[in-house]
Backbone:
């Protein structure tokens, strides 16, 4: 299944408490549950003003639907074309 990186503009994301991050995560997981095996959250990186998520999904439409259901922005969705592993080049 294709892999995507999703850029989410969430002002103050880096200052969110563990409780707030858990709440957003649970909302996302609940939305994913309703979509079946069609889409899968791999992990996310939280920065000061954004969250970058890595997902497996059949297409961008599925990611946008998940964002809509979870009420979480998906400001930019980029398909991963290649993964560079530094171990491979040493």
Residues:
């Amino acid at each position: 299944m294709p892999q995507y990186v999703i850029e989410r503009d969430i002002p103050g994301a880096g200052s969110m408490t563990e409780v707030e991050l858990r709440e957003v995560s649970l909302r996302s997981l609940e939305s994913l549950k309703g979509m079946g095996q069609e889409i899968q959250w791999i992990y996310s990186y939280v920065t000061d003003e954004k969250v970058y998520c890595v997902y497996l999904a059949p297409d961008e439409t599925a990611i946008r639907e998940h964002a809509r259901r979870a009420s979480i922005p998906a400001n930019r969705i980029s398909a991963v074309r290649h993964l560079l592993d530094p171990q491979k080049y040493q």
In short: The beta strands are 3-9, 40-46, 50-56, 76-79. The longest helix spans residues 18-34.
